[in-house]
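Why does residue order matter? Because the sequence determines the fold. Keep that principle in mind as you read this record.
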Amino acid sequence: MLTEELIETRQGPLTLGNQVRPHEQGDLMRANIVSVLTQSVDAVPQDELDTIAALLADPKSNIWLLGGAFTAPLAAHLDFHLRKLRAGVTHLPNDTTRRSDHLLNVHKGDTLVVFDVRRYQPDVEDTARFIHQNGGRIVLFTDEWMSDIAKFAHHVVSCRVEVGTPWDSLTALLAAVELLGAACDAQLWKKSSKRLTQLENFRDNAFIPVWRAREK
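Structure:
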C-alpha cells in the first residue's frame, strides 16, 4: 500500500495519459470534476477556514503566499483578494533567487499560505520549512496524498486533484481558496471597506483620466 501511494504521488501527464483513451478524456473529466469538487468542499470544515481567516486578518502578521509551478495561479488568486483587504501581503516569486531576497523580511508570527500538490517541489518545501523554523505559521493547501509540508504545517486543507485525465485539476483547490476569501471578507470587512473605498477613489482619480486621455 505504501509503494502504491508513493507511485501515485509521482504520477504525471505522461504516465496518467496512458491510463485513458484520448477520446474519453472530455467525458471522463466532466463526470469526475463535479464529484471531486463536491467531495472536497464538503471535506473542508467551515470552522477550519474561519480559523485560518483569523490568522490572515491579524494586522501584526505579514502574509506570504507561495505556489509551485502548477499551483502558482492559486497563490496569485489569493494574493489578488487579500492585498485589497489588508497591507503586508506578498506573493513570493517562483524564481528561488528572488524569493530568497524576500525571505530576509520574514518575522516570527508571520503566516505562509503555501500550495503544494504532486509532484511536490523541494524548493517549496524548503521555503515553508525555513519560515516555520523562523517562527512563522504554515497554512498548507495540498492534494489527497499530502505534501510533506503537512508534517509541520499548523493548518492543512486537503482537496482532490485527480480527475482521471493526464492533467490534475485545480478546481477543488480554487473553490477552497474562494471559500477562504469569503471567510476573510467576513472578518476584515469593517476595516477593509475603508481601504477598498480609498482604492476605488485612487483608481478613478489617478488611472481612469489617463486612459481616457489616451483614448482621445
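Residues 171-215 form the longest helix (45 residues).
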